[in-house]
Amino acid sequence: MSPLPLRLSPGDDLRAAVVAALAASGERAGFVLQGIGSLSVAQLRYAGVPQPAELRGDLEILTLAGSVSPDGAHLHMSVSDAQGRVLGGHVGPGCIVRTTAELLLALLPGQRFTREHDPQTGYPELKIG
After folding, report:
1. Which fold, 2-113?
2. Where is the PPC domain (predicted)?
3. Predicted local distance difference test score (pLDDT) of residue 123
4. Among 27, 68, 98, 124, which residue's CB has the most CB atoms within a 10 Å radius?
5. What integer is the mean pLDDT of 10-38?
6. What are the residue ranges spanned by the domains of the chain?
7. pLDDT reported for residue 81
8. For residue 77, what is the enclosing H or E element?
9. Are 6 and 17 within 8 A, CB to CB?
């Protein structure tokens, strides 16, 4: 395992930046071990709900973790709002960094992750190869 710390800047799309970092590394498999920071927009898909909910405002990233492959990421995150309320779920595209996001990506040399449609779940699921 090879660590790759990342710092994202205001306006960055969190999910897109994670996938781009893996691509730039030349590796084909990774995990986000943890992330903290802030967002101005969060797109979170809750369990059993097909579309993400859009949260806007000053949001703190409390946790962030998931798998990353060249064809996408499967990330989960919890955020808190300015009143301390916490929400969490599956990270969708369009989570926009407010001030910073600090992440630790673990690259897995010699491994290859892909995401393939699973007819049982209806979602693109991790394939380790």
Report:
1. 60s Ribosomal Protein L30; Chain: A; (3.30.1330)
2. 1-129
3. 85
4. 68
5. 98
6. 2-113
7. 97
8. strand 72-80
9. yes
